[in-house]
Structure to design on (238 residues):
């Protein structure tokens, strides 16, 4: 194999800036999608543990639909199919006039998909607390809403920090699929460097290192958070 290695290509312009730009889009996509996933997943987790059969059914239906359809398929559905089902003006806005349509669609799709997974983590955290705390809240006159706000959720979040960390890292890695609908994130920038320079090994090695550094940094930070918020006598749900 006669390959012309050139690691210096990664630090030349404009390729170094391309990597930084791709990383920036990846981080922004991941954080925005995580906000959607965490908020919606928490609501669904509450619904899945509710005493209302209707709410449990709605939460379960959402999870089964979104969790069992591959994320790549969902991206294509939201980007290519969904706009065609809307009225003409609305569909045109979604496809062309919406700010950063490809990025917005990727954030929305990845957030909704991951919400189904966050829901199950929140549900398992609440159920890990047992019925004792719920009954204690009822005994002192709290409503179901107050029981969730003041008792169940604060404790559940503290014991599901490890799996929630894994879900955020999954979003960070799944962001690479956004290149399939035109989002120029880190993986897309890496492929672009390969196409311009034919230095594929160097480009993808750099991307691997960047992904690993960000992942390890998040894991280190969340371990500190987990250690500081651990519930005495409880085992974290992993």
């Amino acid at each position: 194999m006669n390959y012309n290695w050139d690691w210096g290509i990664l630090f030349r312009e404009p390729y170094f800036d391309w990597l930084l730009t791709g990383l920036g889009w990846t981080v922004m996509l991941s954080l925005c999608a995580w906000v959607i996933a965490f908020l919606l997943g928490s609501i669904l987790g509450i619904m899945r543990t509710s005493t209302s059969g209707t709410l449990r059914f709605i939460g379960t239906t959402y999870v089964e639909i979104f969790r069992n359809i591959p994320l790549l398929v969902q991206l294509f559905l939201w980007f290519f199919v969904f706009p065609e089902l809307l009225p003409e003006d609305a569909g045109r806005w979604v496809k062309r006039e919406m700010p950063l349509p490809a990025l917005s669609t990727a954030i929305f799709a990845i957030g909704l998909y991951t919400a189904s997974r966050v829901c199950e983590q929140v549900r398992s955290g609440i159920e890990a607390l047992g019925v004792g705390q719920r009954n204690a809240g009822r005994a002192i006159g709290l409503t179901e809403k107050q029981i969730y706000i003041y008792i169940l959720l604060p404790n559940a979040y503290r014991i599901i920090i490890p799996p929630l960390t894994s879900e955020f890292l999954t979003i960070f890695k799944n962001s690479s699929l956004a290149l399939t609908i035109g989002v120029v994130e880190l993986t897309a920038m890496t492929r672009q460097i390969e196409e311009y320079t034919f230095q594929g090994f160097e480009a993808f090695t750099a991307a691997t290192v960047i992904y690993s550094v960000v992942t390890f940094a998040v894991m280190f930070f969340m371990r500190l958070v987990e250690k500081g918020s651990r519930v005495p006598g409880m085992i974290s749900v992993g």
